[in-house]
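Here comes a specimen:
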Amino acid sequence: MKWVIGKTKLVKRAKTASTVFAKGGLVNMVSGYLLPADATSGDFYGIVQKAVVATDDDYADNTFILVEVPVDKMCEFEAPVDGTLTQALVGTAMDLTDSENVNQAATSKEVVTCTKFISASKGRFILNATADVANVATT
């Protein structure tokens, strides 16, 4: 995932210890620590700028990592899509598969909305649930 429209800023935040983070993965904040988003997440925080893997020296620590966070509420990001995205799905709210992919076929949480069709496997989206705007059921 990557932000493509809207104002963003880079910030350093503490990561959850002993947790893998994918570069470009969406994260949320849980008890003051970053945690990779999943299909049940809400209150999203931003997109991780560097991968964290189990072989990193600081993997088991709550060290700070760089996250790009939206400043504008209508920032858009591009993301891979599980399922088949079509032009007809623009404007449709969808769920995530994991921190890196949107699930075109799932709509129980509706945490993102498609704003642009790019291809059958890639689209542009806005977040419906951020730390300051939660228009969805996030638990």
Summary: The two ends are 23 Å apart (CA to CA). Residues 133-139 have pLDDT under 50 and may be disordered.
